[in-house]
Amino acid sequence: QIFQPLHTLRSAEKELLPGFHQYEWQPALKNVSSSWDVGIIDGLSGWTASVDDVPADTISRRFRYDVALVSALKDLEEDIMEGLRERGLDDSTCTSGFTVVVKESCDGMGDVSEKHGSGPAVPEKAVRFSFTIMSINIRAEGEEDAVTIFQEQKPNSELSCRPLCLMFVDESDHETLTAILGPVVAERKAMLESRLILSVGGLLRSFRFFFRGTGYDEKMVREMEGLEASGSTYVCTLCDSTRAEASQNMVLHSITRSHTENLERYEMWRTNPFSESAEELRDRVKGVSAKPFMETQPTLD
User: Fold this and answer.
1) How far apart are CA 132 and CA 146, in angstroms?
2) Distance of alpha carbon 236 from alpha carbon 118, whole angstroms
3) Could you give the CA distance from residue 20 to residue 39 in angstroms, rounded to a whole number?
4) Per its UniProt record, what Pfam families does this chain match (predicted)?
């Protein structure tokens, strides 16, 4: 077993790597290469630097998002087939109409500095972006309702949570986070408009993905939506209420913020079209002070 020629070991090793499963997207993903045997990549790849960008001084490693999702689905292959059997569905007719709900999570991992190390100088904090496959449904042809064939029993467990990207960066460093997670977001956006064709249980089946950003804590949501930090007068990440307003009214709140609106407000903050004072301008943009780079969807976990 051990004394084998190197190339045999290499290929055996490759099959154990996530991303060794053949698959395709229809239509092909925009701006994402179609090669599927991609292993661990540099977290900064895919980031196109502009002239005045300072190169991000960090080390980051990640899987390509689609490769990681395929790997996760292949891990659940038996569960999917079992789910079809339990529901009395004939697996040979269930080849399309699968939808997968993915929960995204991202958080800082605190201080990870080497106490006596002599490695490269990098920020001494780390951030991990990960995802969990929450459920898989199928809507059989001619049927009205979708049927759940897989539901994650422990959605908040470490065991169901799959790391996608690890980076040496402080979670408050908006620019570097944008640089690293920007390409991840672009890949996610591309996948929303396409279907994954993957062999599960010996047959090619097609999957659509839905992403829910419910695994971020408040600090991260503020960071990704370009909002002021938690000490801000604007207390809510979903609406524009101030501390004073919120203390008067604890009940009637509606979700009024949207990602697009935050982007418009950032532009306003940047250009100050009405030549207002800092105070007036701040009141106009309601606590948006950086360019948001990730859309976090307000749904309950």
Assistant:
1) 20
2) 43
3) 8
4) RAG1_DNA-bd, RAG1_pre-RNase_H, RAG1_RNase_H, RAG1_ZnC2
Q: What is the token pair recorded at 59?
A: 């080390």
How far is the C-alpha of 64 from the C-alpha of 185, rounded, in Å? Answer: 11
> Using an 8 Å Cβ cutoff, are 88 and 162 in contact?
no
Residue 300 has pLDDT above 90, yes or no: no
Q: How far apart are CA 92 and CA 204, in angstroms?
A: 10
**How far from 190 is each of 38, 42, 60, 184, 217, CA to CA, in Å?**
17, 20, 22, 10, 25
- What pLDDT sits at residue 50? 58
CA separation for the pair 263, 258 (Å, rounded)? 9
The position carrying tokens 């090793």 is 13
Q: Element (H or E) spanning 271, and its range?
A: helix 259-271
| C-beta atoms surrounding 301 within 10 Å | 11
Task: Record the tokens describing residue 188, joined without a space.
Answer: 């996610």
pLDDT at 231: 87
Query: Considering only 59-63, 96-100, 204-208, 247-251, which range has the smallest mean pLDDT?
Result: 247-251
Per domain, the residue ranges of the chain are: 6-215, 225-285
Which pLDDT tens digit goes with each residue over 76-111?
999 999 999 999 988 888 888 899 999 999 999 988
What count of other Cβ atoms lies within 10 Å of the Cβ of residue 240? Answer: 16
Handedness of CA 47, 182, 128, 270 (dihedral sign): positive
Kindly report, residue by residue over 229-261, the tens digit of the pLDDT.
888 999 888 888 888 888 887 777 778 888 999
Question: Torsion over CA of 231, 232, 234 and 235, rounded to 10 degrees?
Answer: -10
